[in-house]
Design a protein that fits this description.
Elements lengths: L1 H11 L10 H21 L5 H14 L4 H12 L2 H14 L2
Length: about 100
C-alpha cells in the first residue's frame, strides 16, 4: 500500500533523469516516512491526516532533505524500476 502511495506521488511530479539525494540518505528518508505511515495506520486509525503529513515533513527536515528533492529522487527511481526494487530490497534485508 505504501509503495503504491510513493509511486503515485512520484507520478505527480513528472520524470527526472537524475536523483537529488544519495541512495543511502534516500533510504533513510523512505524508512522514516514508512515509519510515520505505519504509526498512523496502527495507532491513529487514519483519523489524523495532519499528523501524518507533519510526521513526514519532520522526517525529511530531520534529514535535511527538501520535499522537492525527495520527490525528484522518488521519480528518478520510478523511472528505473530495477534500481528501485534493489533499493527497497536492501532496506528489507537490513531491517527484516
Amino acid at each position: 500500500m505504501r509503495f503504491i502511495l510513493v509511486f503515485i506521488i512520484g507520478l505527480l511530479f513528472g520524470c527526472s533523469d537524475k536523483q537529488s539525494i544519495g541512495a543511502e540518505k534516500y533510504k533513510e528518508a523512505l524508512l522514516k516516512i514508512h515509519q510515520c505511515e505505519a504509526y498512523h495506520e496502527l495507532k491513529m486509525a487514519s483519523n489524523s491526516p495532519p499528523f501524518l503529513e507533519n510526521c513526514k515533513s519532520q522526517a525529511l527536515k530531520d534529514l535535511n532533505i527538501s520535499k522537492e528533492d525527495f520527490d525528484k529522487t522518488t521519480q528518478y527511481y520510478k523511472s528505473k524500476p530495477k534500481e528501485f526494487e534493489a533499493l527497497y530490497d536492501s532496506l528489507l534485508l537490513k531491517y527484516p
